[in-house]
Amino acid sequence: MAVKLLTKSTVEGIPYSEGKILIIYDTRLKGFGLRVSGSVKAFFVEGKVKGKTRRVKIGTHEKGDVPEMMRVEAKAKQSEMQKGIDPNAKKREGREHEAITLRRCLDDYLERGNLKPKTVRDYRAVFNLCFGGWADRPLTDVSKDAVTKKYRAIGEKTP
User: Fold this and answer.
1) Residue 30 in contact with residue 41, Cβ under 8 Å?
2) What is the mean pLDDT of the chain?
3) End-to-end alpha-carbon separation of the chain, Å?
4) Separate counts of helices (H) and strands (E) for the chain
5) Is the predicted pLDDT of residue 35 greater than 90, yes or no?
6) Minimal CA–CA distance to 40: which of 73, 69, 63?
7) Are 60 and 34 spatial neighbours (Cβ–Cβ below 8 Å)?
8) Residue 129 pLDDT class (50, 70, 90 cuts)
9) Which end of the chain has less Cβ packing within 10 Å, N or C?
10) Contact 88, 66 (CB under 8 A)
11) Separation of alpha carbons 77 and 56, rounded Å
């Protein structure tokens, strides 16, 4: 754990870490820091939410985020955490509402693919026949074991 004044030039001068993750805390703002891995330099802020320490990613150097702007964002996140709001839980909550289903995945594939109308119709027919019951199931709920069982069941019905 290192402590430095995080400025744009300081962050640019820090080499990417090979193997081990490097954590550098800022001298100006307590809880604000930089996490350096093999390919990413990510800004984070730490704070306590209901007695538990939380670390929240607030930006990356690769996307052009600069420490001065990230420090302002960090203060805002620390303020939320002092009020008992967990920013990570807030993010997770938002993702749960956007769960990608198997049907949505198929629709996205069919829209992006340069497929003929008959091919699209055939893909939908096979999908409805084999995976109709799974259509509205989130992809996160589809396990490798479930796919294997489904594959074997389909193989028993059709050669």
Assistant:
1) no
2) 89
3) 60
4) 6, 5
5) yes
6) 63
7) no
8) confident
9) C
10) no
11) 8
- Counted residue by residue, the chain has a size of 159
Report DSSP letters for 106-143, one per residue.
Answer: HHHHHHHS---HHHHHHHHHHHHHHHGGGTTSBGGG--
d(CA 95, CA 93): 5
CA distance 141 to 137: 7
* β partners of residue 32: 45
Distances in Å between the alpha carbon of 81 and those of 24, 49, 58, 96? 21, 5, 14, 21
Q: Which residues contact 9 (CB under 8 A, 6 or more apart)?
A: none
**Encoded tokens for 95:** 């993702």
Q: Within a 13 Å sphere around the CA of 36, how many CA atoms are in the beta-carbon half? A: 16
Query: Can you tell me which residue has the tokens 């938002």?
Result: 94
141: exposed, middle or buried (C-beta count within 10 Å: 0-12, 13-18, 19+)? exposed
Distance CA 94, CA 62 (A): 24
Rounded distance between C-alpha atoms, residue 99 and residue 136, angstroms: 10
Closest CA to 80 of 70, 67, 90, 95: 90
In 14-114, which residue ranges form alpha helices assigned H by DSSP?
Answer: 67-82, 87-97, 102-112
Average pLDDT of the segment spanning 36-65: 92
